[in-house]
Every structure is written in C-alpha cells, then in structure tokens.
## 1
Amino acid sequence: MKAHARSIAVIDDDFRVLESLINLLASFGYKADSYESAEQFLESGGLAKTSCVITDIELGQMSGFGLLQHLKSSDCIVPVIMITGKPSERSEDFYLKNGAAGFFRKPVDGDALLELIGSVCTWGE
C-alpha cells in the first residue's frame, strides 16, 4: 500500500496507546505522528500536515474535547476522532453533535477505526 503524503496526528498521554495506534496505522501504510498533549500538537505546527486527528478525550491541561472546540472555532476542517477509556465520559452522540468525525472507546476496534479514517480523510498530493 502506498504511503500517504499527509499524516494522521495521534494524541494520547498513555504511551502504550500511542504506540499501539501508531503501529496499527503504519501497518496499513499511513504516516502517523504522535503527541502526548493537545498543546504539544498545536505548538508543533503539525496541524499544517495533518489529514486527521485521533485524540484521547482526557488529556492534561487541554482536553481532547477542548482541542476539538479550538479547531472548530478556528474553522479547521481536519476531521477529529475522539477516543476514551473512561466509562463516565459523555455519550458518542454528544461528541458527534459537537463536530467529532467519530468516537471510540478503548480498546479501540482497529478495523472500525481504519474504516472511518478511510471515509473521512482526504489526502493531499
């Protein structure tokens, strides 16, 4: 499979989750960049080369939902997929109504995630 010119940003403060998602994406030919926080992602300039963001909801100072709101208020059209390991988080419906492209509970169903990425991402030249 041909690698894509742009990348997927994966944001999670759990190294094991980051590593797992990066390996999954790489095994299907995607380039993925990992970030430990929303702030690190925003400060890195990674958004300019990102076709999709996969973010944990519960992060440090800025939550994944805070990142989603920030991107939407900046008129950013990059799809954001929310993931969580917390059973008490708001419902999937809440995130989708607020602009998320998708929502997954951990452990993430890899096949479903890859299918969603394929349907919501447009890849640059």
Note: Residues 11 and 94 are 20 Å apart (CA to CA).
## 2
Amino acid sequence: MELIIAMTYGKALFDAAKELDMIDEIKEEIDAIDHILKQEPQFSELLCTPAIPAVKKKTMIREVFEGRISRQTLSFLYILVDKGRFFHYHRIVKEYLRLMDEYRGEAYGKVYSAVPLSAEQRAKLEADTGKLLDEKVRLKNKVDQSLLGGVKIMVDGKIIDATLRAKLEDLRYKLKTL
C-alpha cells in the first residue's frame, strides 16, 4: 500500500512539475525539504501525528517554508497533510526522482571495486554501461575490499559482474562440465 501511495503522489507531483516546466525547481525544493525532515525528525513526527489537526500542521508548514519554496510545492505539502499522507514523504520524493531520471533517460547506480576508481575509470564505465543499457548512466564508486579484482556494477536492478571472483566461478563451472 505504501508503495502505491508513493507512486501515485510522486507521479502526480512530477506530472504537475512537467506541465509547469518546473521539474528542476521542484526537485531542488523537495530535496531540501527531505533533508530538513531527516535532520529534524521531531518536526517530521509532528506533521505525521494524527492527533494534531491538519490546520495546525499547515500553519507549521507555512511558518517554516513560505517564501522559501514555490507556491506549487507548498500546495503539495498541504495536500499531503489534508490526505494524511505526510508519512510517505520520503518515498514520494524517491518516486519523483525516479520519474525524473526516467524522463531524462538517466540511470544511477553503483560500481563496486577493490580499490577506489579514478574519475577517468568511472567515466569510462559510465559510458560503457550507458551503451549497454541504452541510457545515460551515472555511477557512484563503492570500495569493497572483499573483491579480488575487477568491478561489479548495479544499475536499476541489473547487475554486471566483471569481478575476478565471478570469472573464476565461471571457469570452475566450465571445467566441471567438461
């Protein structure tokens, strides 16, 4: 149910942002709000508490955000309060970002390596992976010292395993089947 709510509200916000030509502006605003809510969990809890009337929650939101965010984003926050959906805010933001990436043909992922990759190595892996997946790919490097060598790339639930361990396992399987 939570996933459906996040998808529904994330899509509604993204569609409105696209129609208003405000995709980047709203992204920046909802990211900033998400950061604030993570830094101030008590504020987030107040906005999610059913015992506090919606009118008071909207007053709090207005006092904190009015003049700092667009009227559209402020209205969206009010809708979440009115519908009792503020609890799902973080997931809604993730869905908005996913839709934005999809709209722009971008994908984000991680590349695991035994040692840190240089900017050039990461750029080459992004280009090669992008060609393979037919998307513009951005990779974040994570060091995994348990890898013997090579890299493992994860993008949108897809795994490209070019680690030495995977190659050895493949070789072991081939030798067993001979």
Note: The CA atoms of residues 13 and 96 lie 7 Å apart.
